[in-house]
Design brief:
homodimer; 432 residues; alpha/beta; six-stranded mixed beta sheet; 12 helices
Chain lengths: 432, 432
Amino acid sequence: MQGQRVSQGSGQPRVVIVGCGFGGLFAARALRRANAEVLVIDRNNYHLFQPLLYQVASAALAPADIAQPIRTILRHQRNARVMLAQVEAVDLAARRVITDAGTIGYDYLVLAPGAVDNYFGHEEWRQFAPGMKAVEEATFIRSRLLRSFESAELEADPAARAAHLTFIIVGAGPTGVELAGAIKELAVDVIPRDYRVVDTRSARVILIEAGARVLPALHPDSSARALRQLRALDVEVRLGAPVSRVLADGVEVAGERLRSYNVIWTAGVRAAPLAASLGVPLGPGGRVMVAADCSVPGHPQAFVIGDAAWLIDPRSGAAVPGVSQGALQMGRYVAGIIDAELRGRDGHRTRGFHYRDWGSMATVGKSRAVVELGRLRFGGLLAWLAWMALHITVLIGFRNRLAVLSSWIYSYVFFRRGSRLITRVAPPPEGP
Amino acid sequence: MQGQRVSQGSGQPRVVIVGCGFGGLFAARALRRANAEVLVIDRNNYHLFQPLLYQVASAALAPADIAQPIRTILRHQRNARVMLAQVEAVDLAARRVITDAGTIGYDYLVLAPGAVDNYFGHEEWRQFAPGMKAVEEATFIRSRLLRSFESAELEADPAARAAHLTFIIVGAGPTGVELAGAIKELAVDVIPRDYRVVDTRSARVILIEAGARVLPALHPDSSARALRQLRALDVEVRLGAPVSRVLADGVEVAGERLRSYNVIWTAGVRAAPLAASLGVPLGPGGRVMVAADCSVPGHPQAFVIGDAAWLIDPRSGAAVPGVSQGALQMGRYVAGIIDAELRGRDGHRTRGFHYRDWGSMATVGKSRAVVELGRLRFGGLLAWLAWMALHITVLIGFRNRLAVLSSWIYSYVFFRRGSRLITRVAPPPEGP
């Protein structure tokens, strides 16, 4: 059995962590002194800094700038091991994880598989409106976006040209808002002088939101501020406008047909399919309804954290939001329980998980952002600088920090972007 | 007709340049004051610095570091236009280029389509042993290479593990030599501490060459020096060893079967298929036998330059080599003829093309390289510094120079590489 190969008969208890996003990575790190083998399984060989993935899609950053090999991150953590594999199922009763590279037994399990795009029952929309969760999707979106300007340059028919220059983003959460601003800035500030026929500044960027405001998770003041910033950039924002159809050549929204070959889906996420495979009760978005200690009810050795978990914080009465800091806090919390119990100290579970909101932010473009820190809310240049400082700080790896910072300085000074490549990429996956 | 769309009725003569490698790009730039519309057609939206592509394949650089959008390079050249299209055929009699985006008429034509990998009649080897001409191939090779270390880490069977850790490069020209050194250094200097089970330093890198020496285009002294450097790195070099078969799990060479899942083809090139489609006599490697002025015999308005042209330099009696500097010099030369004739000055053709050898160099690894400048030949640290200085200088774009230089410094100081991503990529193209 391959599980034994991995254990190498160390005889130590084994903690298996599935998924190395923020939740999985911070759980692994918090277990660095644990008396256990910590096995991190991910289908990618890198930890991806998803908050900046939209900058890959908009040609500002290269994928390697926001990705770091998991092995490199954990190279000095002697009790950590890394396995590149796709987890196919979990056998909670037998305490085993079934992967495409073999079956692995565990003493403790931390499931942090993350989220996939939610098409709300319309999976057929995915082929026309890819989401932006993976590197491959971001480079696909980038290539399609850049190719549209090329098509517009060659197109003589004004209506067809206008369609090539129309970019539709469905969903005005942080990713949608940031991507809309980044595409508009690309068209207005970066590429106009590269084209001879077409005026790329005429490109339309349409941000469609079913709800009543942009950035619905933030305070209404921040939403209003971001909306003003988006409109100042000439992004067309349509609120209270649910999309009723997505087609190869556009969308239908509020009875109107908008023509576009670049529809991008940022309308919401649901838990990765692994959550549903557990056979336990699921909450909204297919998330596992975990106990107060993030464990799977009836299986105290198995935890689910991050986007794949559904938990009502008893102090606030609200669900823990599916954001990086939620995953990270849950990762540290369950690592604390595991570490303590491995040392024979029980009782750490009675104090259930409590989410602390460290603040929220989103950027709309150069010198434009909104920030919330507790009751403090502000926008503009200061917010933008705070946004940049935080993202550089949280980004993992010295080289990546340097690369991103220098790319940003370069873009700011020269109005250029460093990754304007149209490449043949694998098409977006068929489904989650 | 789409050709007319592109011309926009400017009434000016039109020079069409097919392919924006070194030859096409330097021809376009040398025509910057020409009284003509200069239309550059390429199937990629970027100029690729192929000499560093092996560093993408070996995880040191990101594709965007060595690629620059053609539009950006030519943005200030007012008479230049760029078209993203695949050229399917040329009608020399009617002076038209047929592309997948329409047909374009020309007054002058510069064909610089470059080369494709030459499997010497064994196209079926391509699927197992991809070459390294395009970004997509380099990222495919990188992903396969990195995945092999992952497979080795999970593999219990020693023979299978050894096969995962065997990397075979067929062809010891500059690309083969540089790639062999880069893979060996990756295995020995960069990643050993990232793995817990496998000792990546035990990886075998085998460089197979049918001829009698490595770097056959250089002086025998340089070949001997590079061979010593390769052996000092523990690269296994097999000379006089033609590969007789390439299979999914290895190669057959000199009656011996070598097991490997990473065979890379750098054994030679031939002209891009566009050359054969012209219906004119072809020389070695399917290259167009051009006249002394690089024109297609019988078609003085059509030139072929670079890797797709076959020309014996009358002064040296040798064929112009298929290297960057040959393409670049030919590009400038034909641009001079075209520019003069557009100004009504004939006679520039009588002085045929003459190739000037500016020197040759190749690097084998950190502090290891060989350089030839006329009769001067040297190796070691000084050669390595010269190699780096030249490549940084010739690289196009300030941002790319900065990115490559800082990546090299980073690698040198920290023994790391910045682009260790395994990504799903489009499989290598079926054929040329």
